[in-house]
Amino acid sequence: MNKNVFAEHFTKEIEKDLKWRDQELAIMRKQLLQTTTNSDQEQTLLRANVAILYAHYEGFCKFCIGIYVEALNKRKLKRKDLTWKIAVHSMKKFYLELKKAENQSELFTNFMDGLNDKFDEVAVLENLAETSNLWPDLLLSWLNALNLECDNIQNQRYFLHQLVARRNKIAHGKPMTIATKLAFDDYANAAILAMHEVALGVVSALESRSYQRASIVHTIFSHATTDV
User: Fold this and answer.
1) pLDDT by residue (tens digit) across 110-166?
2) How far apart are CA 5 and CA 23, in angstroms?
3) CB atoms near residue 127 (< 10 Å)
4) Which domain holds residue 167?
5) Is position 114 within any domain?
6) Under a CB-based contact definition with an 8 Å cutoff, are residues 34 and 169 in contact?
């Protein structure tokens, strides 16, 4: 399977999932805009919009990251052929094994004996998106581990953090108010920017194969010359 066909398969899944979420969010926002300002109906729909916005933000970001992990696992690439960050992410089990060493000598020996073998193995990535409450710092850590773009998410951390916090209040039956429809738009813009950045990052990485390196030399050299 060539790279374009391979990427296209996953791209279509991402586009399909994002399309229905965008449509639902647009319908909910339209209902909100039609309400009378400062009415009980407005406050109810503000709460409903926050809840559904968070559900789509969390659901889509997890879906998209899961698609990327699935795609990389299907490629069955060796760690030496992956970018440093992704190669490291796939070595969690090796890291845990090293932590069992009783002294520095044993740690160093196990590291040197195992490193070459591990880099020559096919990488198997764990799906990161197996937790609730998608705080922005958690999402950023996932994207960083998979070497994906996250500038917009970094810039929108405040509103994404507030979105998660407000959704949690709703989920636990606590009062939650947003002053105006315009105030809600700040949360909506942050969430939608995050969703689209994750989607574009994954699609771009799959199409360009930016997750892949030509050799172990390039992988290690990149680590030595690039901020992790």
Assistant:
1) 666 666 777 788 888 988 766 778 999 999 999 999 999 899 999 999 999 999 999
2) 27
3) 14
4) 3-90+125-225
5) no
6) no
